Amino acid sequence: MKLNQIADNEGARKGRMRVGRGIGSGKGKTAGRGVKGQKSRTGVAIKGFEGGQMPLYRRLPKRGFRPPHQKTWQVINVGTLQKAIDDKKLDAGKPIDSAAMLAAGLFKSASDGVRLLGKGEIKTKIEVKVAGASASAIAAVEKAGGKVELPPKPVAEAA
C-alpha cells in the first residue's frame, strides 16, 4: 500500500451542500433561510438580543474582581510527597524543590511556584524548598524531622 492509494471508505465523507442554485436542488431560492426578515439577511448577530427587552446579561448585577496579574500556584500536599518518596520518584536525601517535583511528574508546569499544603501524612525526614506553605504543612514536615525553606519576604520600602 502507498500513501497516494489511501482513500476513505465509500460514504464516509459527505459533500457540502451548495445553496441557492435553483429550485431543483432543494435548497434554491431562499437557500434554507426561510422567508424575508432579519435572520434571512447577511451579517446578523442577535445572540443576546431579546426583542428590545433588557437582556439577561444586562439585568444581572456585576460582581467581584479578578486581579489581572494574579499568581497561580501549583498545589502539592505532604501526602503526595510521601507517596512520591515511597514510589522512588523523589530522593528524600536531597533537597526537594519545584524542579525535582516536576521531574517526578507531580505536575506538568511549575506556574509561579509550588505551594505545600498539609493534607495527608509524611513519615520521612525531608528538606523542601517551595514558594509557599501552609502552617499545617510546615508543622507536619517539622514533626517528621525535616524542614521547609521559604523564600525571604520582600521588605516594604519606607516612604
Give a quick summary of the entry.
The protein is an alpha/beta fold. The chain has helices at residues 56-59, 78-86, 98-103, 135-143; strands at residues 74-77, 114-117, 127-129, 132-133, 147-149.
Integer average pLDDT? 91
What is Rg?
Answer: 30 Å
Give the spatial strand order of the biggest sheet: 1-2-4
Profile the largest sheet. 3 strands, parallel
Residue runs with pLDDT of under 50 for 5 or more positions: none
Outline: elongated
Strand percent estimate: 5-15%
Count every beta strand, where a strand is a DSSP E run of 2 or more residues: 5
Share of helical residues:
10-25%
What structural class results from the helix and strand content?
Answer: alpha/beta
Oligomer: single chain
Q: State the helix count.
A: 4
Tell me the span between the first and last alpha carbons.
77 Å
Highest CATH level, the class of the domain at 74-149 = Alpha Beta
Give the second-level CATH assignment, the architecture of the domain at 74-149. Ribosomal Protein L15, Chain: K, domain 2
The run of helices and strands is HEHHEEEHE
CATH fold call of the domain at 74-149: Ribosomal Protein L15, Chain: K, domain 2
Can you put this structure into words, describing what you see?
It contains 4 helices and 5 strands. It has a domain at 74-149: Ribosomal Protein L15, Chain: K, domain 2. The chain has a 3-stranded parallel sheet with strand order 1-2-4. Strands 3-5 form a two-stranded parallel ribbon. It starts with 55 loop residues before the first helix and ends in a 10-residue tail after the last strand. By secondary structure, it is of the alpha/beta class. It is elongated, with a radius of gyration of 30 Å. The model has no long low-confidence stretch (mean pLDDT 91).
